[in-house]
Predict the structure.
Amino acid sequence: MNKREFIKSAAVITGVAAVTPLSATVKSNLAEPVPYGKGSAIESGVAGQKATLKKSLGYGMIKEELPLVDKLKLAVDIGFHGVELNAPVDIPMTELLDAKEKSGIEFPTVCNRDHWGSPLSDPDPTIRKKCIDSIALSLKQVKELGGDTVLVVPGVVNEKVSYEQAYINSQQAIRELIPYAEETGMQIGLENVWSNFLISPVEAKRYVDEINHPLVGWYFDVGNILRYGWPEHWIRTLNRRIMKLHAKEFSRERMNSKGLWEGFNVELMQGDCNWPVVMQALREVNHTGGWLTVEVPGGDRNHLKKISEQMDQIIAYF
């Protein structure tokens, strides 16, 4: 069964109308038929049309004490098109939708808030169930907000949870989430983080391929990889499994001289991320996820305007 047939079949079985538009064909210069849909490399709409990236930022980065609508208008005024919320959201949905309409902002993605405290990899099924329920609600909320992707940390390895346990438990939990993804038509974007888990691009690719569902892919964080790899390598390996992108910077020199977490204490385009090469890799895999969401320390409008301008420089390479 090819990619188009797979997605059409899924739509018929589940009754999810949102799945079928995801099958628009985009030619790839990498011969890798991957059945991953919405936002990965399949959503450009018009064959041959140049893809674009819109700018988003985390809601918590907006540090000015303002009413919700004014915070979102601030983001729009300095050049951002979207805001990423933590979910399940703690702001009433009616207020968010009203503020969205009045400000013109979009909510393309949400970041689940429970995948660290109650990870999908935990040996305790009650803890995994708590996270599953949280992500299921996040999927419903991002749909209501007009977005399409929930960011999920797939698992955490530590002294109490082995790598193999994390692999098996988290995959099973994600499979339990698939009916919720199908019901809403929303994507589950797994993010690469410093959780001692899925630290190779080949393994990350295999992990998603074993789940094998068009609504499960990667929310790729460019900066997180720089501790132990090169983002362009990951991009080419993950290919159309990448649904959305996080942008941050990292300096190996600062990490080595000042401490691990100090590596993040560097402005965009001032660290070790080779943004022209990263953007070239995204073009090569025909990435059309549509959004680049920045995840760096926030501040007032002047600080955020500088970040917006830095992102413009990065996106110009795409």
About this structure: The CA atoms of residues 99 and 244 lie 24 Å apart. Residues 163-184 form the longest helix (22 residues).
